[in-house]
Amino acid sequence: MSRSGPPLVTGVAPKEGPPGTRITIRGENLGYDPKDLIGVKICGVDCLLAADWKSPSKIIARSGPGKGKGDIIVITKSGGQGTCTVGFKGYYVQIGPLQESAIWIDESQSVSSNLRHGRPSSPLFSKDDEDPLGISDEGNQAKFSEEDLLELFPEASGNMSIENFSSSWYLLENHHSTSFDDLRAGLAHMKRKAKHRSEGPIAFVKTNLSSTLDCLDSLQNMYSKFCTDDIRGEFINSYAVLLMQAKSCADGLFQEVLGRKDKADSTRNALSVLQRFKFLFYLPLNLQRNIQKGDYNMVINDYIRARSLFADTQVQVFRKVYKEVENQINEFRDMLKQKLMELPNSLENQKKLIKYLISLECSGDPAWECLVNQQKWLTTILLRCKEQHLQEEKESQPNGDVFGTPQRTSNLSRAKPGDSNSLKLEHGSSKFTNPQRIMYIEELCEILTYNLPDLWKLGQAYFSGALIVKEQTGEKAFKIDVSKHSQFKQMITDTISLFSNLVRAAFLPQTLPEKLSAEDKTKYGQWNQVIPGDWLPSCVRHIRNCVWSLSLLDLPGESPTVINDLAFDMRTNCMFTLLKQAISDIQQLHIKETWIVETDDESGGTTQLPALFENIVNETIQHLHEVVVQNKQGEPEIFGQRTVQKDSTQLCSELLQAFVPCLDCLAFTPVMAGGSSNIADDSKKRFSTSSMDFEEHSLQFDKRLIIMLSNCSHTMERIIPRLVENLNKHGYVEMNKALQTTRERYEELDSKLFEAYIEEKSNPIVGAIEQNMYRGRFDWKTCRKPAGVRNYLKDVIMKMIEVHAEVFAVSPSFVTRVTQKVVESVSEEITRVIECVTEFNEHGKLQARVELKALQETVKLYITPHANQCFKEAMDNLGSMKPEDKKLLEDLLNKYKSQMKFQMMCFYGDSLLRNSVSA
């Protein structure tokens, strides 16, 4: 670009506008600096004073009072006067009577001629006021009639000049069909106009600087001309008087209008201040509303913002409003602190409240105060829980309220107490409720489980600094006192110790710390009623669940040890109590005996008692395994301590042996188990599947002995090994030693029962042998030739068969053992009687030999070495037998076998009998 070339204007924006329009001029050679630019003419009016040189190709200027279309000419020192290829159109905007204007306004179109006569006229509006939205594309025809609008807005008007102006009326009247987008554009137009008007006189003068200077030049020229022409100086004064009169007249005409304008300006200025600082003026109301809605974050943010802006203000109005804000915030702090101290409260809500108080710079340490208050509250409700349940227990005792042991179901499984406080067990017409101590420990565990974790987590958050950090700045409100950490640990330990001592006082008072005084022990509660053992598993479950929940918190100091020791002691106490209760239950089984014998191939004939005994033991073991023995993560092994091992082994041994006194009682006590009223009607009519009858609704001694002998043998041989195996499987120690001791007890009982039964059954048989042998004045010296086996021996055999049948009906496995002992007793008695005979004749010897041989042949399957020796001694006492007597002996024996065929079948099989007869 050559600096010597003339300026050339090639572009202008905008291309039209009223005086004062900001114009961007583009072109070539528009000057190489601001000093080079000496003139800018727009529509023939020099606008250099309002021109701003930007570059050789760009100038920004404001248009003057030029009217009509004209050129834009740029004049520079280097290039001279330039040319223009584009034009600019200037036009005058209709100006209202209250609007500033930099040009002379022709008022003939807007001011009525009757003003000169002093008559009032209607308000005048400018072209802009007729359509403030700038979207008058619908004409002036009203869309609604005035009657309809009055009905809709009875106390309003669509006239913008009066106070009851209604924007809704105006829009329905003038813009009924205008779209929403057009209305939004109209709103933007109004905002631009308001902004333009708010720029004030300085902006107006700046915009119309050239016109103002022209007016001043014109006034100065007029004054010089008047001074030159007015030699005497009178005209100037007269003109001045006329101007003052004109000014007074103008002021009189527009005084009311100008007064309203001043009032509107003052109102506008006040509204501007309110609008500019509306945050502060609306803040008290907004704070109140946000507090009521619970939007505390908004309250705190607004307060911090107001404090940063107006805390040090010297403006009285602002100070007054800010003082009100401070009063509301003080009340808000008190409300937050009160809410923080109200318990129970969730952990998240507590953290929020603490952070709110920290952000509001509350005095003191709200987080620590909350921790102390929560620990005191937790201690209070634990003690209150104890007092409440103690009182309810005392009130229940005079009324006769009782609680029962959970009943066993039909399959002999133990029922467990429920976890619900409303559980009630019905037994006949009696109703049993949960013991107060069961509901007490459940509530204690629930209180500690739900509240201690919140206290611990809140403390962890406090000491990590998370609670004392201001969210707005991220900095800590204050430095945490290190000594409070040890205080907090002690608070947790004290709470755990209180819980432990409360539980121990209710269930394990003997395990309370020895250092506690009697008064302190009374503080933890003194309970009177005895809790049945069946309720203890429920207590242990609650305690173990509570300990497991607290173990996840990684509690400090001695707290884990205290709570774990409590759980361990509760487990061991429950185990020992249930084992003792099971022992007591087993010892009372004799009251449930029905004497109904059931026989199977495995166990022979037994009653229901061995099964009841086994079920009680197995259910106790299983119950203890689920509740006590089975360890959770972090729990100590229940059999890890030697004292527990020793006591549990002793109790298990007593448990296995507890059935022995029951069997002994049933066998040797003449009164029927459970009393005669416990025997069912059908059981009174039959003894077993062999239809053995009761005698006068009671069982004979020998029948009781053989039934209990069978029960004892079945228990010793089958049930005890299974129970020991089950105990070993569930972790009980030294069960082999317990098994050995138990076997000895059962063997002693077995021997006692067996000897008593043999004595009971043998004595009648043996006692009648000698008497029956000599019945009818029989004498061995005068014995006739034998004709067969005498009746006394047959009577002995029939009684032995009776014993055989009785034993076989109960337990076939005992037949051999019992029959052998009976045979021994019979053989001993017969041998004794024969040895006592002083003299035999030949026929007597043969008769004795036939009877001995017949007896031997009948019971040969049950002859023991001792019985065989007795028979041999008896035979030797008879001497040798003559050859001619052998044939007779054989015939007599065959005759006996033929006659006693069915009787002999009781002692050995039918095939053996046939083989023996054929032989």
From TrEMBL:
Domain IPT/TIG: 7-81
Domain Exocyst complex component EXOC2/Sec5 N-terminal, first and last residues per copy: 130-907
Quaternary structure and partners: Component of the exocyst complex.
Organism of origin: Mytilus edulis
GO biological process: exocytosis; Golgi to plasma membrane transport; protein transport
Polar residues bias spans: 406-423
Keyword list, A-Z: Exocytosis, Protein transport, Transport
GO cellular component, one term: exocyst
Superkingdom of the organism of origin: Eukaryota
InterPro entries, A to Z: EXOC2/Sec5, EXOC2/Sec5_N_dom, Ig-like_fold, Ig_E-set, IPT_dom
Record bears the keyword Transport: yes
A Pfam family this chain is assigned to: Sec5
Family listed: Belongs to the SEC5 family.
Function: Component of the exocyst complex involved in the docking of exocytic vesicles with fusion sites on the plasma membrane.
Region Disordered, residue ranges: 394-427
Transmembrane segments: none
UniProt name for this protein: Exocyst complex component 2
